[in-house]
Queue: 2 jobs
Job 1
Amino acid sequence: MEAHASYRGNDWSPQRLLFHQNLESFAERVGLIVALQGNGKLSQEQAYDQIRAIWKELKDSKGNLINGKGPAA
């Protein structure tokens, strides 16, 4: 696992830093899922379902951290 890169945006805030880390984690997890699917460890449907689930997590974190919305009901 690689260390997270630092966030250098002009609009720095603790929330944006955390979202940046979530975004990097999402990208890393997608890469792992794609590799597992490519090696036959996951079906395409399983890979899709897992990526869709972590996309929802990322989208929710953006809503909570960047847009200032509470958790979705």
Job 2
Amino acid sequence: MFWGVGLLIHALTVYAPNFIMGKNWEARKIKQFMEQDAKNNQ
């Protein structure tokens, strides 16, 4: 059962990444990390 759930989650992340994370999730996360880093370096 757990193997099947893992396989389903993997399939969704491979074939439908926008379904889970949204279209510009990666860009938002990079911007967030860059802003956090700039704040920490002040």
